[in-house]
Amino acid sequence: MSESSTPDWAAPEVVSISDIAFEPKAGFWLRFVANLCDGIMVSIISIPFAIISASTTGTAAALSQSAQFVVSFFVLAFWIGNQGGSPLRRKLGVLVLDEVDGSFIGQRRAAQRIMMSWVSGIVFLLGYLAMLRSPQSQTWHDRVAHSVVVKR
Questions:
Q1: Alpha-carbon distance values, 34 to 43, 56, 151 (Å)
Q2: What DSSP designation does 56 have?
Q3: According to the model, what pLDDT value does residue 88 have?
Q4: What is Dmax (Cα atoms) for the chain?
């Protein structure tokens, strides 16, 4: 067949399955410990704000508590989004990664994931327990952020 007789349409692109699909997913208890590690790291960052809050009253204490919440939230979103988790979580080998290509999810998706994790906890932990029935061991907040948690 000559080039002039080839059709104008292109063949469908072959989608390859990323290596992330074959990586071992972190189980419930390992993820529980990893979340505790994140909490420990955020608590360490929160200590100066807690000291200020405890030593002041009124508006100064309220501002310090607000700053503590905001800084903790954004530091955790930075860690998860750009590094896969807090330093202790990474030391444990439990990483939050993109469900398609295995890259880090970025700060915006990490922030969405954190906020949805609060919802998961408020609703009788159903969002967390959903991972037990998910083929990729994804919780509600993993599904919202299009992420998976792997053990490396």
A1: 14, 33, 10
A2: -
A3: 96
A4: 84
